[in-house]
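Cross-posted from the bioinformatics board.
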Amino acid sequence: MLIARNLTCLRGDRLLFKKVGFELSAGGLMYVLGENGSGKSSLLRLLCGLLAPEDGEVFWDGKSIKNDPENHQSNLTYIGHLNGLKDDLTALENLQFSARLVANVVDNGLALNALTATGVARCANLPVGVLSQGQKRRVALARLWLSTSQLWILDEPFAALDTASVVVLTTQLNQHMAKGGMAIITTHQDVDIQAQSTQTLRLIA
Amino acid sequence: MKINWFKYSSPQVFYPLAGKLIPWFAWLAAILALVGLYVSFMLAPTDFQQGEAYRIIFVHVPAAWMSMVIYIVMAAWAALGLALNARLSAMMAQALAPTGAIFTLLALVTGSLWGKPMWGAWWVWDARLTSELILLFLYLGFIALQSSIDDPRRADRAGALLALVGVVNVPIIYFSVKWWNTLHQGSSINMGAAPKMAATMLLGMLLMALAFWMYTVAVALMRVRCIMLERERNTDWVKELSLKTLSSQSIAGAK
Amino acid sequence: MIVLKRDLLLAFRRRSDVATTLFFFLIVSSLFPLGIGPEAAVLSSIAPGVLWVAALLAGMISLSRLFAADFADGSLEQMLIAPQPLALLVLAKISAHWIVCGLPVVLLAPLIGLQYALPNDALVVLVFSLLLGTPALSLIGAIGAALTLGVRGSGLLVALLVLPLYIPVLIFGAGAVAASQHGMSAQAHLSLLAACALLSLVLAPLATAAALRISVE
């Protein structure tokens, strides 16, 4: 259960949003919508604990993520604007590193399966630096196929993807929701994800 | 726009308060400085070894004291700001830094002015002077870091962390410089103990140190008021304040 | 561990970066004889300071690489939200940085010491002092690198922040070499140097982790 209360976010001397609150329980999906610059990404970073709110608090399983970050972080997979990939490592190495970073031991086979699922298995042994934007994004998203965490926070996961990949990702999200996962997604596209409960949070710039 | 300003230790309350306090501290500084200068230059006896030149210590020693004290106070404000997420504390730290740097510079300049008749050289790698020089670098680093970060919150917190790291390091640096100095120079000339302190000399120094203290408070308060206005220019109370100032000016103009 | 391995692998893929630091050290320490003159007596008397300052500068210019790439491509924020103590991840990154940028300098130093006509005993002390001191430099430098992350003009800024903090390490390190050169025991210097290294080993990763959290916001 993820609860946000009274979140206020200030960047520089600009107020992005104030008094944002919601509750997200198992199997719940939340879309975060809003114009460019309305603070969508900042909200997601707040929910990850990367950004400290000016005011308000985020709770995971009843405990504030400020006081007990460990529990929150071990249940979290976050894919932000940046892919978090090293250009000099191969797609496979990148994927394995990010899995190990969350103490999730992954053998070559599993990692390859994940890359196959997002359709970039051909590039598995190429350095990420030579891949296209869309391919890089798919390598980053392949982490979702290895993720065991309950909460997914995805910033524009559908951007830069072709239609086929959008379908693949939607299916994966459906599965995640069906297993009782939670997801918070920002998107500009119309996607149809099946979830036990769906809510929309609209930020006004 | 209404945010919980309580967390910022309420600048709109602090701003007028600081404004009222500034003249008091400024006057105290001026009076103490006058008395201090009188004691140091008229009453204190001439040193039989160094003659009149020694009188520069009445500026040098208090400035050196202040340069160190201000750094510690600055770090304390910074730590407070970091721990409580209190904006006002961070602003105080930011407001103190330039004054600290100026006192450090003053201590260096007066030290070298004193060194010329004493050692026959403008600069001697004496442990104290070297430590002051390094302290100046620390101040400059703090100011440079704060001014090169655009986001005020990040600037505050990064500066605070740097000040804390600096405060941990200052004793180590001071010790290492002393160690280095004794190894390379054998017997160094000790500035503080050189003239045998007469009671009037001590009094002069104390008065000057107090004057510098009051000056520091006055100047830091002035600076913190400026920082406040700049940071919170979009808030209601600053807008109201500027409107009031404008209207009172126009009334004065009409008269 | 995994971070250490990854950073070493990355450095291996970009070997030229490693070479740059080493070249810098080599060039800086070769400039002094050109500026001062080739007399062995003069050179050997300035050698401890010159070699230590050169090592210090070489370590410093490589600092900007410590976190900047990870910050730019987003892997740093992944580390920040990983369910592992950030200070440990930071320590792993610093260790990798030292192995890549510090250790080669330590190994090359005796060769340059020979060019400066340092006696054999002093060469041994030089290597020891660098072995103790360069990790401290990497650790302290990491704080500065983390604080200036993504700030404009960060390369120069990091020098301004970090160089004053390097002074004790420089004094004890160069002092150790000079002491052995003059036939005295370098033990006191080396112990103090070790103390600096230990203190920074304990405090620097924590401070760096805090600085990274501030900078990534």
